[in-house]
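Per reviewer request, we include the raw input and output of the structure prediction for the construct analysed in the revised manuscript.
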Amino acid sequence: MDQLWANRAASAEAAVVKRHLRPLWGLPGTQLGVVAWPPTRRDRWFGTWHYWWQAHLLDCLIDAQLRDPQPGRLGKIERQIRGHRLRNNGRWTNSYYDDMAWLALALERAERLAGIDRPRALATLAEQFVRSWVPEDGGGIPWRKQDQFFNAPANGPAGIFLARYLTSQGEPVRRAQQMADWIDETLIDPDTHLVFDGIKAGSLVRAQYTYCQGVVLGLETELAARTSDERHPARVRRLVAAIGEHMAPGEILNGAGGGDGGLFSGITARYLALAATALPGDDADDVAAREAARVIVLASAQAAWDNRQNVGGLPLFGYAWDSAAELPTTVGGQAQFVEGAVSSSQTPERDLSVQLSGWMLMEAAHTVTA
Protein backbone atom coordinates (compact mmCIF):
# COMPACT_ATOMS: atom_id res chain seq x y z
CA MET A 1 0.00 0.00 0.00
CA ASP A 2 2.81 2.44 0.83
CA GLN A 3 4.25 2.17 -2.71
CA LEU A 4 0.87 2.97 -4.23
CA TRP A 5 0.65 6.22 -2.30
CA ALA A 6 4.32 6.96 -2.83
CA ASN A 7 3.72 6.77 -6.58
CA ARG A 8 0.65 8.99 -6.37
CA ALA A 9 2.49 11.53 -4.24
CA ALA A 10 5.33 11.52 -6.77
CA SER A 11 2.84 12.20 -9.57
CA ALA A 12 1.31 15.09 -7.62
CA GLU A 13 4.78 16.52 -7.05
CA ALA A 14 5.67 16.17 -10.75
CA ALA A 15 2.47 17.99 -11.74
CA VAL A 16 3.20 21.00 -9.54
CA VAL A 17 6.87 21.07 -10.57
CA LYS A 18 6.00 21.00 -14.27
CA ARG A 19 3.11 23.48 -14.22
CA HIS A 20 4.07 25.91 -11.49
CA LEU A 21 7.78 26.00 -10.55
CA ARG A 22 9.75 28.79 -12.22
CA PRO A 23 12.79 30.95 -11.42
CA LEU A 24 11.78 34.22 -9.80
CA TRP A 25 11.98 36.95 -12.48
CA GLY A 26 14.32 34.67 -14.44
CA LEU A 27 17.02 34.96 -11.75
CA PRO A 28 19.35 31.95 -11.42
CA GLY A 29 19.36 30.19 -8.05
CA THR A 30 15.75 31.17 -7.30
CA GLN A 31 12.36 29.52 -7.58
CA LEU A 32 8.72 30.13 -6.66
CA GLY A 33 5.38 28.64 -7.58
CA VAL A 34 3.38 30.44 -10.27
CA VAL A 35 0.04 31.01 -8.53
CA ALA A 36 -2.21 29.83 -11.37
CA TRP A 37 -2.27 27.31 -14.21
CA PRO A 38 -2.79 28.09 -17.00
CA PRO A 39 -0.97 31.33 -16.08
CA THR A 40 -1.38 34.86 -17.34
CA ARG A 41 1.70 36.93 -18.17
CA ARG A 42 1.37 38.64 -14.76
CA ASP A 43 1.32 35.23 -13.07
CA ARG A 44 4.43 34.06 -14.92
CA TRP A 45 6.34 37.15 -13.78
CA PHE A 46 5.20 36.80 -10.16
CA GLY A 47 3.30 40.04 -10.18
CA THR A 48 1.05 38.49 -7.53
CA TRP A 49 2.55 37.53 -4.15
CA HIS A 50 0.82 35.01 -1.88
CA TYR A 51 3.34 34.53 0.93
CA TRP A 52 1.65 31.62 2.68
CA TRP A 53 0.98 29.61 -0.50
CA GLN A 54 4.72 29.64 -1.17
CA ALA A 55 5.41 28.51 2.39
CA HIS A 56 3.18 25.49 1.81
CA LEU A 57 4.96 24.76 -1.46
CA LEU A 58 8.20 24.65 0.52
CA ASP A 59 6.60 22.32 3.06
CA CYS A 60 5.41 19.99 0.28
CA LEU A 61 8.92 19.83 -1.16
CA ILE A 62 10.16 18.75 2.27
CA ASP A 63 7.44 16.08 2.42
CA ALA A 64 8.67 14.78 -0.93
CA GLN A 65 12.30 14.76 0.25
CA LEU A 66 11.30 12.62 3.23
CA ARG A 67 9.43 10.23 0.96
CA ASP A 68 12.15 9.97 -1.68
CA PRO A 69 15.44 11.69 -0.81
CA GLN A 70 17.09 13.26 -3.86
CA PRO A 71 20.00 15.74 -4.11
CA GLY A 72 18.17 17.60 -6.90
CA ARG A 73 15.19 18.26 -4.67
CA LEU A 74 17.44 19.73 -2.00
CA GLY A 75 18.38 22.27 -4.65
CA LYS A 76 14.70 23.06 -5.21
CA ILE A 77 14.22 23.58 -1.48
CA GLU A 78 17.21 25.96 -1.36
CA ARG A 79 15.94 27.88 -4.39
CA GLN A 80 12.42 28.11 -2.94
CA ILE A 81 13.73 29.58 0.31
CA ARG A 82 15.92 32.06 -1.56
CA GLY A 83 13.11 33.04 -3.91
CA HIS A 84 10.69 33.52 -1.03
CA ARG A 85 12.91 35.96 0.80
CA LEU A 86 13.80 37.87 -2.35
CA ARG A 87 10.15 38.24 -3.46
CA ASN A 88 9.28 39.32 0.08
CA ASN A 89 11.53 42.39 -0.29
CA GLY A 90 14.53 40.72 1.29
CA ARG A 91 12.72 39.97 4.57
CA TRP A 92 11.39 36.88 6.32
CA THR A 93 8.56 38.73 8.04
CA ASN A 94 5.36 40.44 6.94
CA SER A 95 2.31 41.86 8.70
CA TYR A 96 0.39 38.59 9.08
CA TYR A 97 1.23 36.23 11.93
CA ASP A 98 -0.46 33.26 10.29
CA ASP A 99 1.64 33.78 7.14
CA MET A 100 4.83 33.94 9.17
CA ALA A 101 3.86 30.84 11.14
CA TRP A 102 3.56 28.78 7.95
CA LEU A 103 6.98 29.89 6.75
CA ALA A 104 8.47 29.23 10.19
CA LEU A 105 7.06 25.70 10.19
CA ALA A 106 8.49 24.98 6.75
CA LEU A 107 11.91 26.44 7.58
CA GLU A 108 12.09 24.48 10.84
CA ARG A 109 11.30 21.26 8.97
CA ALA A 110 13.86 22.14 6.28
CA GLU A 111 16.52 22.39 8.99
CA ARG A 112 15.47 19.36 11.05
CA LEU A 113 14.59 16.99 8.24
CA ALA A 114 16.58 18.14 5.21
CA GLY A 115 19.65 19.73 6.79
CA ILE A 116 19.04 23.17 5.24
CA ASP A 117 19.70 25.67 8.01
CA ARG A 118 18.31 29.18 8.36
CA PRO A 119 18.93 29.84 12.09
CA ARG A 120 18.60 33.61 11.88
CA ALA A 121 15.29 33.33 10.06
CA LEU A 122 13.95 30.91 12.67
CA ALA A 123 15.05 33.15 15.53
CA THR A 124 13.51 36.20 13.86
CA LEU A 125 10.19 34.45 13.29
CA ALA A 126 10.10 32.93 16.78
CA GLU A 127 10.54 36.38 18.28
CA GLN A 128 7.52 37.61 16.28
CA PHE A 129 5.25 35.04 17.94
CA VAL A 130 6.64 35.37 21.45
CA ARG A 131 6.37 39.16 21.46
CA SER A 132 2.85 39.23 19.99
CA TRP A 133 1.27 37.18 22.80
CA VAL A 134 -1.23 39.60 24.44
CA PRO A 135 -3.56 37.91 26.96
CA GLU A 136 -4.32 41.36 28.37
CA ASP A 137 -6.06 42.17 25.06
CA GLY A 138 -8.01 38.91 24.91
CA GLY A 139 -5.47 36.79 23.00
CA GLY A 140 -3.69 34.74 21.87
CA ILE A 141 -1.64 36.32 19.17
CA PRO A 142 -3.51 38.42 16.63
CA TRP A 143 -4.12 37.55 13.01
CA ARG A 144 -2.00 40.50 11.85
CA LYS A 145 -0.10 43.38 13.34
CA GLN A 146 -2.10 46.26 14.81
CA ASP A 147 -5.23 44.08 14.79
CA GLN A 148 -7.63 42.87 17.47
CA PHE A 149 -8.69 39.66 15.75
CA PHE A 150 -7.28 36.69 17.65
CA ASN A 151 -7.82 33.46 15.75
CA ALA A 152 -7.01 29.78 15.43
CA PRO A 153 -5.24 30.16 12.04
CA ALA A 154 -2.55 32.31 13.70
CA ASN A 155 -2.29 30.65 17.10
CA GLY A 156 -2.44 27.05 15.84
CA PRO A 157 0.54 27.02 13.45
CA ALA A 158 2.54 29.45 15.58
CA GLY A 159 2.00 27.11 18.53
CA ILE A 160 3.11 24.06 16.52
CA PHE A 161 6.25 25.92 15.47
CA LEU A 162 7.07 27.05 18.99
CA ALA A 163 6.54 23.53 20.38
CA ARG A 164 9.11 22.24 17.90
CA TYR A 165 11.51 25.18 17.96
CA LEU A 166 11.60 25.69 21.72
CA THR A 167 12.34 21.99 22.19
CA SER A 168 15.22 22.22 19.73
CA GLN A 169 16.60 25.16 21.73
CA GLY A 170 16.37 23.23 24.99
CA GLU A 171 13.55 25.42 26.28
CA PRO A 172 10.22 24.33 27.80
CA VAL A 173 7.12 24.35 25.60
CA ARG A 174 5.18 26.51 28.06
CA ARG A 175 4.22 29.21 25.55
CA ALA A 176 2.90 26.61 23.09
CA GLN A 177 0.85 25.10 25.93
CA GLN A 178 -0.50 28.52 26.82
CA MET A 179 -1.61 28.99 23.21
CA ALA A 180 -3.30 25.58 23.19
CA ASP A 181 -5.04 26.34 26.48
CA TRP A 182 -6.22 29.73 25.18
CA ILE A 183 -7.76 28.06 22.12
CA ASP A 184 -9.39 25.37 24.25
CA GLU A 185 -10.84 27.89 26.70
CA THR A 186 -11.92 30.44 24.08
CA LEU A 187 -12.64 28.85 20.70
CA ILE A 188 -14.10 25.37 21.24
CA ASP A 189 -17.77 24.90 20.35
CA PRO A 190 -19.32 23.19 23.41
CA ASP A 191 -21.88 21.41 21.21
CA THR A 192 -19.77 20.02 18.35
CA HIS A 193 -16.26 20.31 19.89
CA LEU A 194 -15.09 21.95 16.67
CA VAL A 195 -12.87 25.03 16.70
CA PHE A 196 -14.40 28.43 16.03
CA ASP A 197 -12.42 30.85 13.86
CA GLY A 198 -11.53 33.46 16.51
CA ILE A 199 -12.59 36.42 18.60
CA LYS A 200 -12.70 40.04 17.48
CA ALA A 201 -13.12 42.88 19.96
CA GLY A 202 -14.33 40.34 22.51
CA SER A 203 -16.99 38.83 20.24
CA LEU A 204 -16.79 35.23 19.04
CA VAL A 205 -16.42 34.74 15.28
CA ARG A 206 -18.34 31.48 14.99
CA ALA A 207 -17.25 30.35 11.51
CA GLN A 208 -15.83 26.82 11.54
CA TYR A 209 -13.27 26.03 8.84
CA THR A 210 -11.53 22.74 8.18
CA TYR A 211 -8.09 24.23 8.56
CA CYS A 212 -8.86 25.66 11.99
CA GLN A 213 -9.46 22.08 13.07
CA GLY A 214 -6.25 20.95 11.39
CA VAL A 215 -3.91 23.45 13.03
CA VAL A 216 -5.36 22.92 16.49
CA LEU A 217 -5.12 19.17 15.99
CA GLY A 218 -1.47 19.60 15.02
CA LEU A 219 -0.73 21.75 18.07
CA GLU A 220 -2.37 19.36 20.51
CA THR A 221 -0.67 16.35 18.90
CA GLU A 222 2.75 18.01 19.19
CA LEU A 223 2.10 18.73 22.85
CA ALA A 224 0.76 15.23 23.48
CA ALA A 225 3.99 13.83 22.06
CA ARG A 226 6.26 16.25 23.95
CA THR A 227 4.67 16.40 27.40
CA SER A 228 3.12 14.00 29.89
CA ASP A 229 0.05 16.17 30.34
CA GLU A 230 -3.10 14.15 29.65
CA ARG A 231 -5.12 17.19 28.59
CA HIS A 232 -3.40 17.22 25.19
CA PRO A 233 -4.11 13.65 24.01
CA ALA A 234 -7.66 14.01 25.35
CA ARG A 235 -8.15 17.07 23.14
CA VAL A 236 -6.69 15.23 20.14
CA ARG A 237 -9.13 12.37 20.60
CA ARG A 238 -12.05 14.78 20.95
CA LEU A 239 -11.11 16.81 17.88
CA VAL A 240 -10.48 13.82 15.62
CA ALA A 241 -13.97 12.59 16.50
CA ALA A 242 -15.48 16.03 15.83
CA ILE A 243 -13.80 16.30 12.42
CA GLY A 244 -15.06 12.86 11.49
CA GLU A 245 -18.61 13.66 12.56
CA HIS A 246 -19.00 17.20 11.25
CA MET A 247 -16.39 17.90 8.53
CA ALA A 248 -15.83 14.62 6.72
CA PRO A 249 -19.11 13.23 5.37
CA GLY A 250 -18.46 9.72 4.12
CA GLU A 251 -14.97 10.12 5.70
CA ILE A 252 -13.99 12.62 2.95
CA LEU A 253 -12.91 16.08 4.10
CA ASN A 254 -15.05 18.99 2.95
CA GLY A 255 -13.70 21.28 0.23
CA ALA A 256 -13.50 25.05 0.69
CA GLY A 257 -13.20 26.39 -2.87
CA GLY A 258 -10.11 27.95 -4.36
CA GLY A 259 -8.00 30.91 -3.33
CA ASP A 260 -6.87 30.62 0.28
CA GLY A 261 -9.64 28.08 0.84
CA GLY A 262 -7.89 25.72 -1.55
CA LEU A 263 -5.31 24.97 1.15
CA PHE A 264 -7.75 24.32 3.98
CA SER A 265 -8.44 20.61 3.51
CA GLY A 266 -4.83 19.79 2.69
CA ILE A 267 -3.71 21.38 5.95
CA THR A 268 -6.27 19.33 7.84
CA ALA A 269 -5.08 16.16 6.10
CA ARG A 270 -1.46 16.97 7.04
CA TYR A 271 -2.28 17.16 10.73
CA LEU A 272 -4.67 14.22 10.69
CA ALA A 273 -1.69 12.26 9.37
CA LEU A 274 0.41 13.64 12.23
CA ALA A 275 -2.24 12.51 14.73
CA ALA A 276 -2.39 9.08 13.07
CA THR A 277 1.37 8.59 13.41
CA ALA A 278 2.46 10.65 16.43
CA LEU A 279 -0.36 10.55 19.01
CA PRO A 280 1.10 8.51 21.88
CA GLY A 281 -0.71 5.94 23.98
CA ASP A 282 -1.69 2.31 23.78
CA ASP A 283 -5.16 2.30 25.29
CA ALA A 284 -8.24 1.69 23.18
CA ASP A 285 -9.17 5.37 22.88
CA ASP A 286 -5.74 6.35 21.55
CA VAL A 287 -5.69 3.48 19.08
CA ALA A 288 -9.19 4.38 17.89
CA ALA A 289 -8.28 8.06 17.42
CA ARG A 290 -5.18 7.20 15.38
CA GLU A 291 -7.19 4.83 13.20
CA ALA A 292 -10.03 7.34 12.71
CA ALA A 293 -7.53 9.98 11.57
CA ARG A 294 -5.89 7.49 9.23
CA VAL A 295 -9.23 6.46 7.71
CA ILE A 296 -10.20 10.07 6.91
CA VAL A 297 -6.84 10.72 5.23
CA LEU A 298 -7.03 7.61 3.09
CA ALA A 299 -10.69 8.00 2.15
CA SER A 300 -10.08 11.63 1.16
CA ALA A 301 -6.98 10.70 -0.83
CA GLN A 302 -8.74 7.91 -2.70
CA ALA A 303 -11.65 10.22 -3.56
CA ALA A 304 -9.31 13.00 -4.72
CA TRP A 305 -7.37 10.56 -6.87
CA ASP A 306 -10.50 9.01 -8.36
CA ASN A 307 -11.92 12.46 -9.21
CA ARG A 308 -8.75 13.99 -10.64
CA GLN A 309 -8.28 15.06 -14.23
CA ASN A 310 -5.34 13.63 -16.14
CA VAL A 311 -3.44 16.30 -18.07
CA GLY A 312 -0.34 15.25 -19.95
CA GLY A 313 -0.13 12.11 -17.83
CA LEU A 314 -0.13 14.09 -14.57
CA PRO A 315 -2.95 14.68 -12.07
CA LEU A 316 -4.96 17.86 -11.67
CA PHE A 317 -6.96 17.76 -8.44
CA GLY A 318 -10.37 19.19 -7.74
CA TYR A 319 -11.10 21.66 -4.99
CA ALA A 320 -13.76 19.30 -3.60
CA TRP A 321 -12.30 15.83 -3.38
CA ASP A 322 -15.66 14.07 -3.65
CA SER A 323 -16.45 15.70 -7.03
CA ALA A 324 -14.86 15.53 -10.46
CA ALA A 325 -12.13 18.10 -11.07
CA GLU A 326 -12.76 20.73 -13.75
CA LEU A 327 -10.10 21.65 -16.30
CA PRO A 328 -9.19 25.33 -15.84
CA THR A 329 -8.57 27.95 -18.52
CA THR A 330 -7.47 31.58 -18.42
CA VAL A 331 -11.06 32.64 -19.15
CA GLY A 332 -13.11 33.97 -16.26
CA GLY A 333 -12.37 35.60 -12.94
CA GLN A 334 -8.95 35.18 -11.36
CA ALA A 335 -7.97 34.90 -7.70
CA GLN A 336 -7.74 38.32 -6.05
CA PHE A 337 -6.17 39.53 -2.80
CA VAL A 338 -8.92 41.37 -0.91
CA GLU A 339 -8.77 42.57 2.72
CA GLY A 340 -6.06 40.16 3.77
CA ALA A 341 -7.34 37.04 1.99
CA VAL A 342 -7.17 35.58 -1.51
CA SER A 343 -10.47 34.85 -3.23
CA SER A 344 -10.96 31.93 -5.61
CA SER A 345 -10.48 31.89 -9.34
CA GLN A 346 -13.71 31.27 -11.23
CA THR A 347 -12.45 27.72 -11.78
CA PRO A 348 -10.86 26.89 -8.41
CA GLU A 349 -8.66 24.15 -9.88
CA ARG A 350 -6.64 26.89 -11.58
CA ASP A 351 -5.22 28.05 -8.23
CA LEU A 352 -1.89 26.74 -7.00
CA SER A 353 -3.45 26.42 -3.55
CA VAL A 354 -5.84 23.70 -4.75
CA GLN A 355 -3.05 21.69 -6.37
CA LEU A 356 -0.80 22.03 -3.32
CA SER A 357 -3.66 20.73 -1.20
CA GLY A 358 -3.97 17.66 -3.41
CA TRP A 359 -0.21 17.11 -3.22
CA MET A 360 -0.30 17.48 0.57
CA LEU A 361 -3.08 14.93 0.72
CA MET A 362 -1.14 12.38 -1.34
CA GLU A 363 1.91 12.87 0.92
CA ALA A 364 -0.33 12.46 3.98
CA ALA A 365 -1.70 9.20 2.59
CA HIS A 366 1.84 7.97 2.04
CA THR A 367 2.75 8.99 5.60
CA VAL A 368 -0.05 6.96 7.19
CA THR A 369 0.66 3.85 5.09
CA ALA A 370 4.48 3.89 4.98
